[in-house]
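Chapter review. Work through the record for GTPase Der before attempting the end-of-chapter questions.
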Amino acid sequence: MSFTVAIVGRPNVGKSTLFNRLVGKKLALVDDTPGVTRDRRPGAAKLIDLRFTIIDTAGLEESGPETLQGRMWAQTRAAIDEADVSLFVVDAKAGLTPADQTLAEMLRRSGKPVVLVANKSEARGSDGGFYDAFTLGLGEPCPISAEHGQGMLDLRDAIVAAIGEERAFPEADEVAVTDVDVRDEPVGEGDDEDVEPEYDETKPLRIAVIGRPNAGKSTLINRFLGEDRLLTGPEAGITRDSISVEWQWRGRTIKMYDTAGMRKKARVQEKLEKLSVADSLRSIRFAELVIIVFDATIPFEKQDLHLVDLVAREGRAPVLAFNKWDLIEDPQAFLADLREKTERLLPQVRGIRAVPISGQTGYGLDRLMQSVVETDRVWNSRISTAKLNRWLESQQVQHPPPAVSGRRVKLKYMTQVKARPPAFMISCTRPEALPESYLRYLTNGLRNDFQMPGVPIRIHLRASENPFEGKKKKR
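Structure tokens for GTPase Der:
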């Protein structure tokens, strides 16, 4: 993008609504509750003929630097420092507050261009708040309605005036191609060619990081980045939006998504938490790899097992990360116990890679990423039809399909129909009669014989066609 714009203002003035309007999709969570946004969220914005990077930020609240509100405001300050111009949003309907005056003074001291935006100007009685905005000393306010899309042309002109024509409209060859948000790019099904392509170790990886609240997901990502990019703290449930960050690991582009902690469904009562969980679920569905972060001090809670099962049912490639390893007293014995429980409690992803880590100290992060790449390699694997049919024949010799009602089910043909995750189709007689236990036998055989540990495997049965079906019997 040619330039970067930060949206700033006090809570509940409509910053996230304006952000969603500019990016053209509902990326940021929006609710009537003040202070919904906590982390800074970037997005690719389009306004008439302008293209730029927009950053949604947390609202200004007076508090100490050690409090959650203080840490949120530090994230907003970082966004202002990063941006080329700030959109200072005030509520024309409610009027100005002391927090608006404080923020206006801070923006003046930053020395960067500021566009004053009077949101909710379509509301009855908003004229007073609009004219009060002149007292901030930041020029003429731009009246808009982020909810209804009014005033967008005036906002475009104000941004161009603040940033300058040359910066607003760079030459075509200087404009960088931006990434599309992960939720608009579903993971592909893979092609159906009967080949075994080599694994591409240079393609970007999209990774979602999930777990229970306070498991250390944001701290882990900050350690990968080497900076305090995401809001962290001792409070549970700090993260609300699914925030994407991009970085390099051994020359490979990694796009990682921090998500809100997911509690048991019965405990999720508030509307805002439901929105956060729904956002996390979208990140899982559109990711390629999913790192499930366990708190090593209280591992294998029932919710942890539910999360792994959810990832497997969605067909994503899972990796376990036992965080807070620096708090474990006897690591060797504890690790052996964790590995035994992993195999016993998670049979649906047998062989899943589990890595002890510490997001606080950085221990084990390189091994975690190596496990992620190895799991992605398996998740993308494809096996030729010839190998599969030789294997299927040997499996039936070792353990023939059971006879049901005196008739044995015949498995005739097998092929891989897609990767990501690996999915296979078996042509057979009477597919409805083949028991689940035999499908588990075949699944485990695929894992062992083709080195496919820790990823979900799908096996679909299809009735073989009868060439004489529909023809009349001769008398």
